[in-house]
């Protein structure tokens, strides 16, 4: 990778990874992958600052793709210790909710308990998240080119 791309990719990927791993803040990704696209735009903005001339769409897409890929990996790695800390708390919340609502069907109870306790499902979700982050980072890079080209 070109040395001019390294810092924008690292900073954009860090932006994506940290905001995607934080428990409440990651809800922004529910709205059109907000943090991922914004990280791709950030990476293109930083690349434009260090680039002499205008960057083209291919350069923007490449920087956004790498930022999204790195952000997905960082987000997956950061979510592991966060989930280890918050997992028991989430299980307690679900148990209290289910105890206070006896009208919840048995299938729904089972699904909620498996969702909170399921480590394998979260591992698959982390892998899918890396791919999704790469795609939406690329789209953010293209959006950044459209915004920042003069």
Please give the radius of gyration in angstroms.
19 Å
Got a strand count?
0
Helix content: over 70%
Strand content: under 5%
Q: Flag low-confidence runs.
A: none
- Put simply, the count of helices is 5
Elements, N to C (H/E): HHHHH
What is the chains' assembly state?
single chain
* Distance between the amino and carboxyl termini: 25 Å
Average pLDDT works out at: 88
Largest β sheet strand count, sense and barrel closure: none
Shape: elongated
The assigned structural class equals: mainly alpha
Describe the fold and architecture.
The two termini are 25 Å apart. α2 runs antiparallel to α3. By secondary structure, this protein is mostly helical. It has 5 helices and no strands.
Characterize this entry briefly.
The chain has 150 residues and is mostly helical. The protein is 81% helix and 0% strand.
Notable traits:
150 residues; 5 helices; 81% helix; elongated
What's the helix and strand layout?
Elements: H1 3-21, H2 34-50, H3 57-100, H4 106-117, H5 119-148
Helix pairs in contact: 1-2, 1-3, 2-3, 2-5, 3-4, 3-5
């Amino acid at each position: 990778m070109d040395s001019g791309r390294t810092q924008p990719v690292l900073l954009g990927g860090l932006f994506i990874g940290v905001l995607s791993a934080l428990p409440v803040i990651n809800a922004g990704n529910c709205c059109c992958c907000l943090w991922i696209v914004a990280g791709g735009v950030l990476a293109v903005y930083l690349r434009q600052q260090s680039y002499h001339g205008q960057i083209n769409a291919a350069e923007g897409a490449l920087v956004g793709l790498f930022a999204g890929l790195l952000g997905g990996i960082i987000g997956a790695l950061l979510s592991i210790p966060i989930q280890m800390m918050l997992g028991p708390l989430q299980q307690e919340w679900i148990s209290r909710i289910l105890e206070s609502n006896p009208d919840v069907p048995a299938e729904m109870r089972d699904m909620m308990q498996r969702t909170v306790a399921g480590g394998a499902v979260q591992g698959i979700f982390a892998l899918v998240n890396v791919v999704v982050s790469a795609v939406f980072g690329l789209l953010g890079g293209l959006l950044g080119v459209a915004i920042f080209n003069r």
